[in-house]
Structure formats: structure tokens, C-alpha cells
Amino acid sequence: LSAAEVNDKRRHAQRLLDETARDTAGIRSLLHEEQLHFMKRVDADLEACVKTATPWLEEQLSNLQRANPHTSGRALGCLLEEFFNEQIDVIFRDWRKREDAELSRMFDEIVSRYTVKANSTLDTLMTGIGSIVDVQTANLKVKCGLAMDSRVSYSIERIFISLDSFLLVVPPFLQRRVVFRRAMSSVPQRLDRNSGRLRFDYLERMERTFHLLEHSLTSQIEDVRQMLMKTLEMPRSDVALWNQIKAVRSYVSALD
Q1: pLDDT of 193 above 80
Q2: How many other CB atoms are found less than 10 A from the CB of residue 227?
Q3: Can you give the pLDDT at residue 161?
Q4: How far is CA 134 from the centre of its chain?
Q5: I need a labelling partner for 244 at 20 to 30 A (CA). Which of 22, 35, 61, 254 fits?
Q6: How far does the chain reach from its first CA to its final CA, in angstroms?
Q7: Residue 65: is its pLDDT beyond 80?
Q8: How confident is the model at residue 135 (pLDDT cuts 50, 70, 90)?
Q9: How far apart (Å, rounded) are the C-alpha atoms in residues 32 and 192?
Q10: Of 149, 115, 147, 139, nearest to 31 (Cα)?
Q11: How far apart are CA 95 and CA 160, in angstroms?
């Protein structure tokens, strides 16, 4: 190679690096927007869940009151604790099953769509390298799904401990009325508090999921780019350039 040809190849390689850097930065930015969209979806769905569940849970609490006309004192507190534990778990467990199924479907579509984008960037990189030296086209193989290992736990107030001491000495019929009224008024707050814990769980899972997807989509492209960058940093020797390009070719062949 003449000095002019070596310089032409260096300039071409630099343009290639600049173009693929913009492409990968664009993929990262778009994935961040997708993650924010997912969380907005979770927020809206949780809000709808709480809105729907509130009157249902209030009705179940009324049924519990009618079914236990004589329970009072600490036994009443334990009964209410058990009730809220079971019902809140049922509400959010069923909601999570539906939400996870829909989010998984949406995420699979994102993986397919962005794999196409990343492969287009990789193809641009491979085509550019191919103009310098013969190299086979490589395709990314992305295997990534929604993180399903939820770590959420629900918060249930210890009702029998929180009963005011004076309530434990008042007549049972009056005590029951006050305790159930307080329990009824606490329903929206209990659901809101636990939906917040669930939201944090989804936020953490989304961060892990999208971080893994971003790495899967861009790491191989970045590896090839880094090897090309090393080529540009080498002395202006046609032999050195040729040896480095052959190393890039060997790496790309290994991708398949």
C-alpha cells in the first residue's frame, strides 16, 4: 500500500467509527426512552388497579364484619391482619400475572426491533471494513427477556398492636364499630402504600432488563470499534495497518 492509500483507509475508518458511534449512542438513548415508557405504563396500570381494588376490598371488609359479629379485642386485630395480608396479596398477585405477561410481550417486540437496528449498525461497520479488507458479514444474536425474579414484599400494619388501649376496655359492640371504621378508612392508604412497593420492584427489574439488553445489542459493535480505533492509533505503516485489520477480521469471524 502507498502512503496515500494508507491515509485514505485511515480516513475511511475514522468516518466509520464516527458513524457507528452515533448509531450506538442513538440505540442507547432510544432504549432509555423505552424504559421510561414501560414505567409510565406500570404507573398507569397500578393506579387503575388501586382504583378498581379499593371498592372491592371495602366490600370484602364489610363481609368480614358481618361474618364475625362477636369477635373483639386482640382477636379482632389478628383477624383484620390476616384479612389484609391475604386480600392484598391476592389483589396484587393477580395483577402482576397480567402485567408481567403484557410487559413480556411488549419487551419481546422491543428486542426484535432493536436487534434489527443493531444489526444494521453492525452491517455498516462490516461493509466499511470490507472496503478495506475482505470480511464476512456478522449478525448479533440477542437473547434477553423481562427480569421475572420479583423481590417485592407487602407492608401490613400490625392492627392488634396499634389498637388504642382504651379500645380494649370499652364494650365490644362499640369497640368493633370504631375498629372497623378505622380499618375501612385505611383501605386506600394500604393499597397505595403497597402499590408503591410494587412500583419500586418493577423499576429495579426494568433497570436490570434494559441494561442487559443494551449490553447485548452494543457490546459486540463496541468491541469491533475499539479494534479499529487501535488501528488508527498505530504508526502510519501499511504493514501495521494490514496486521491490525486482519485481527479485526479474525474477531468478526468469531462472532458467527
Answers
A1: yes
A2: 18
A3: 46
A4: 40
A5: 22
A6: 30
A7: yes
A8: very low
A9: 27
A10: 115
A11: 29
Reported pTM = 0.76
| Cα Rg, the chain, nearest whole Å | 30
**Mean pLDDT on 226-251:** 60
Sign, CA torsion 54/59/65/68? negative
Q: DSSP readout, 79-91?
A: HHHHHHHHHHHHH
Q: Give the containing element (helix H, strand E) for 107.
A: helix 73-130
Q: Compute the C-alpha angle 181/153/106, nearest 5°.
A: 110
Question: Which DSSP string do the residues of 22-50 spell out, in sequence order?
Answer: HHHHHHHHHHHHHHHHHHHHHHHHHHHHH
**Whole-angstrom distance, CA of residue 159 vs CA of residue 208:** 36
Over residues 77-103, the pLDDT tens digits come to 889 989 999 999 999 999 999 999 999
CA–CA separation, 67 vs 80, rounded Å? 12
Q: Closest Cα partner for 138 from 50, 42, 254? A: 254
> What mean pLDDT do residues 155-176 have?
61
Angstrom distance (rounded) from CA 82 to CA 97: 23
